[in-house]
Structures are given as structure tokens and as C-alpha cells.
Amino acid sequence: MRAWAAIATFAVAAAFTYFLLDVYIRQAAAHWSQKPLIAQYYRERGSHDERLLAWQMYWRGENFYTQNEIYEGPASERTVFLGDKNAENLKEFLTKHPGKRMWFLIERSRLDGLKGILPESVRPTVKVVNENNNKFYLLTATQ
């Protein structure tokens, strides 16, 4: 009886592990990871000039999934806005790149803060492109 119980326990554990790894984690990943959002950005952007801006993102997935593209080049061209002067640096970047569509990756709780920082003319163009993720939004805005 103990041998059959051990075999049954092992079988249930193996089946549950399979379910967690091949079913549950795959379905939950889209709601927790930045990968689907960044993949959508790369699919839908019109050109390389449409940059992905990560505003107050401290998760580092945005660096990984863009292969550090958002953090390359001179400091004035980087599209990661962190730290003490994040709002000022974002405004400066926007003034240097007028008339272009921008993509934003932000935490859900920071949407109103971002809209408050953007120039008055840009605010009506802010559009949530993907809100399937429970942590992040993918947005577009045009200057």
C-alpha cells in the first residue's frame, strides 16, 4: 500500500509541476512581464525614430527586452528617465524631438503623473495601447 501511495504522490507532483510550468506560468507571464508590451512596441512602431520611453521604471525588464537600446548613446538621447530630475529630463527630451510619435512604458499607477508632466498640447494624444498587463501600460503620444 505504501509503495502505491508513493507512486501516486510522485505522479500527482509530476502532473502538478507540468501544469505550473507549461500552463499556468505561460498564461500568467503576459500579465506580469514587460515582454508582450515591448514586443507590441517593436511590431507597431512606424520607424526607429519612434522611441520607447521608460519613465520611472525600476524593474529593468525594459533594458533586458530592448537589449539595452533605451539606454544606449549619449545621455541626451537616452530614453530612460529615472532619479531626481526625471521630469525635467523628459521635458528636455520632448522639446528636442518635436513632431514625433513617442511610446511610453510606465507603471499603471504613474499614468496621471506622466500626463501632468507632458506639454498641454500632447496630453490629448496620449492613448493606452495595451492595458492587458496588471503592472504596466504601453502608451503612445504625439507632439
Major β-sheet annotation: 5 strands, mixed
How many structural domains? 2
Which sequence of strands runs across the widest sheet? 2-1-3-5-4
What fraction strand?
15-25%
Structural class: alpha/beta
Instruction: Identify the overall geometry.
Output: elongated
Number of strands: 5
In terms of per-residue confidence, which ranges show pLDDT below 50 for 5 or more consecutive residues?
Answer: none
Give a structural overview.
The protein folds into 2 domains: 31 residues; 110 residues. 45% of the residues lie in helices and 17% in strands. It is built from 5 helices and 5 strands, in the order ααβαβαβαββ. It has a 5-stranded mixed sheet. It starts with a helix and ends with a strand.
Descriptive tags:
45% helix; 5 strands; alpha/beta; 143 residues; 2 domains; five-stranded mixed beta sheet
Brief rundown of the structure:
The protein has 143 residues and is of the alpha/beta class. It is built from 5 helices and 5 strands, in the order ααβαβαβαββ.
Write the layout of secondary structure elements.
Layout: H1 2-32, H2 35-44, E1 52-55, H3 61-65, E2 80-81, H4 86-96, E3 101-107, H5 111-117, E4 127-130, E5 136-142
Parallel strand pairs: 1-2, 1-3
Antiparallel strand pairs: 3-5, 4-5
